Predict the 3D structure of the following.
Amino acid sequence: MKTKNIYDIIAIISTIGILCWMVTDYFGGMVIYLFSYGVIIFPVIILYIVSFFDTLISTAKRGITQNKTKVIFHGLVLVAIFLTNMFQSDIFKSKRVLTATLKDDQFHYTLIFRKDGNCENEVSGIFGFQEIYHGKYKFYGDTIIFAKKPYDNDFIPDTLLIDRKAKAIFIEKDKTGKFTTTKEWLNHFEIE
């Protein structure tokens, strides 16, 4: 087998490995998978880096036509990075109306309320953990009521109180059913 074919195969395998690793970002976070499957991912990263620099040097010496396979596969990673960033940005989403964050000792919960009635709960944790829950809401004065809850547990109730003076969204109610408007740990989201 020619050396050129070996470098092409390394480019293909390492690119597929990097793309698979990038997909893990949608299933909890790339860092978590790096720690869990480091024996597989580290060699793929090293192969990719070596292959990428080989592609740059080889393309500079011999041109793109001699290195089509490597250029196409390394280009796929760049396209995937670009598309991932576009998908995760706010460019194609409705304008933000209100954003608030609750900081826990292990997680940050960021509620994003959009103009079109959609909302997101971005949960970020240690080691790059990230999960996004989608829901729907309606504002009723200073109250937020979720039509579809943006989470999978009962940590955040279906009704929240906005206190713009305190720059907070309160989530706890007292025994009488009124919202507790004193800022305490884990009872409010800080409005950004």
